[in-house]
Amino acid sequence: MAEFNELLKVLRREVPSRPVLFEFYLNERLYRRACGKKYDVSTPYATMQTMVRSFAYYGYDYATVRGSELWFSNGEEQDGRTISLNAGHCIEDRAGLDRYPWMDASACDYSSLERIRADLPQGMKVVVMGPGGVLENAIGLVGYDNLCMMLYDDRELVGDIFEKIGSSLVEYYRLCARYDSVGALISNDDWGFNTQTMLSPADLREFVFPWHKRIVETIHAAGKPAILHSCGNYTMIFDDLLALGYDARHSYEDKIVPVEQAYEQFVGKMAVLGGIDMNYLICSSEEEITARCRRILEQTKERGGYALGSGNSIPDYVPDEHYFAMLRAVKEGKW
Question: What order do you get walking across the sheet with 248-250 strand by strand?
Fold first, then answer.
């Protein structure tokens, strides 16, 4: 039975009464398996219903959903197998910024967040994710190489681009957080590679982090927890990360900081969500996966602030049986 209050305990760095699951998103195969003939992504509301059915089926206390149609399109679709950080780059200069057709976050349709209340199982909430993040969307619109050069050539233009993106995201989260169906909100924004941050820590502090601070403040003003989903090496910005005020962080890789070690870094400061490395989920045996999951649950059960899940998500190349091996540790978990 879904009980969002158990996830809420985790986000408050408290000890839940049972093991709790957390995942950013699953995959179409798993969604279809959960929904059967009711699988439907033909409209935003139907997609939201599908997410609720699927997450409830697999034992989550929430479902991740999009709040509205807000998007920052660069006009180029990538197939997901190989993604270039330089694709699109539709803003190259001041004229490009002025021409770009910015969507108005306040004019978007958020009504599905009200309608979904009737479809939520008792005790369940939705967790709203963003349409990409502050840095992600800047890279998508400018191109990574171009953004790096622009930081040298025209920092005022860089600031204006981040202002347009950041202010739209702040408004998006403000509007989403108003709904009773929403239990928490995720700010999803990748900041780094395996070895370092995408921009220098100084540039992140100038252009990116102030907007995240405002996003957190906006979510907290509505009385909701704020979750950060961010891939990449965070070791050189650890103190900055804590200062932003997020209640929890999601996305961990063994080759950066294994989740068992990350938990010891964050415990008492910020909740840790997921962390079972995706490569480990793919390559390890079912028995190894379940055993590792049981160990991290044992490590965290007395101190709280932890929910079990993957290091990032469950794309379709993760074998279903390996995903179920992770779930098994929670279903069989005892406190």
Answer: 62-66, 125-129, 182-188, 226-229, 248-250, 271-273, 306-307
